[in-house]
Amino acid sequence: CEDLAWEKMAHAAKTAGQIAVGGGHKPVAISSLNSIPLPSFYAVPTPSLLIPTPDKLALLRTADKAGRAFDSRIVKVEASFAESIKEVLLFTSDGRTATDIQPLLRFGVRAVAEDHGKRQSGSGGGGGRYGLDYFADAKRDAAAHGREAARIAIAMLDAKDAPAGEMPVVLASGDSGILLHEAVGHGLEADFNRKETSNYSGQMGKQVASPLCTVVDDGTIAGSRGAINVDDEGYAGQNNVLIKDGVLVGYMHDRLSAKHYGIQPTGNGRRESFRSMPLPRMTNTSLLGGKDDPEDIIKSVKRGVYAKRFSGGQVNISNGDFLFSLTESYLIEDGKLTAPLKGVNLIGNGPEVLRRGDMLGSDFELSDGIWTCGKDGQSVPVNVGTPTVRIASITVGGTQA
Which of 67, 113, 129, 251 is the most buried (most CB within 10 A)? Predict the structure, then answer.
C-alpha cells in the first residue's frame, strides 16, 4: 500500500491477513498500541535539505578550489553533495509504534592528476547523519576533502607495480573496516546462519578469530552513517558484541531469526523502504582497538603492504573467501613506508584473516561515512571501523614477484 488513506491501509491489512490465514498462521489480537521510547543518535536542528542551495554550492566550490590549489598537476576536480531525510512511521502486528526522522549527508570529491603522460585519480569525502554542522570540524571541512583527494592523486603518479605473493599486510585504521564488513560481517547476519549458508553456522561459542579480536555492530554511534534510533521492526538500535576475544558470541538478528534462535531481536531488522522485507543487516561494524603502537606495527614488517583505502570487492558468504582492490596502498620495506603501489589486490578468507591478526593498534578509527551496503537487492547506509592491524600473512595479487 502506497497511500496513507485509512481505507487503503485497511484493505492492505485485510489482504495480508487473508494471506497469513491461508499460510496456517493464527490471528493476533492487538489489545493496545505501545509507543516505543527511543534514544536520539542524530538530533539535527536544521537538516541540510532546508539549507539554501547557494550554501551547498559554496561548499562544492571550496572543495574544487582547494583540490586545484594543492598541486599544479591537478587538472580536474569533481565534487558532489547528496542529502536525504527518511521519515519513518512504524506500526507492528504486536502493537509496537515508533516514529523517526533519519537525516543523511554525503560529500564526495574526486581529483585527477596528470604528469608527463601519466594520469591518476584520488577520492575524498565523508558524511553521516548530520546537517551542515558536519563541516564545522576543520579535519573534514570541504577544503580538507578537496586536498585529500588531490593528495592521493598526486601520490599515485609515482606508484609502482604491486608485489605478488604471500606477505604481511598492515591494514590502516578506519576505511580498512570495509574488509571486515564484507568478508566477516555478512557471515554474522543471522539469516545466513539460520539457513546454514554461512561459514559461521554452528560455530557459536567457538574460537573463530585471534584472541586479540573483538568485533561489534553498534547502531548507537551518534552521527555515524549507520546509526539508527530504531530499526524497521520497531526495536531500538543497540551495541551488539559478535566476537569477543576471538570467540563467536552473537549474530545480528531481525524478528524472524530471533524467534528461530529463541532470543530477543538485536535492532538489526532493516530494509531499504516499506516496499522491502526486513532482513538482518549491519549498522556500524567494527573491529575494536588493541594495545599496540601503530608505528610499531609498521616497524615490525620487513617487507609487505600497507593497505589504506579500498574500492570494490567480491566475497563468498558461504566460506568467507574474498578479493579486494586497493585504491591507496604503500610498500613496506624494513619497517618503513616507501613507494606508493598500484594494481594491488588482497586475496584471502575473512575468518582466516581474523585468525592471523597478530597486532592490533590502539588507534581505533571509524570511517568517515561513505559506505552503502547491498543485500538481496536492498541498499542501506552503514559504516565501518578498525584500528591499525597486522595480518601475519595474506595473498597479495600484483605483477611483481
Answer: 67
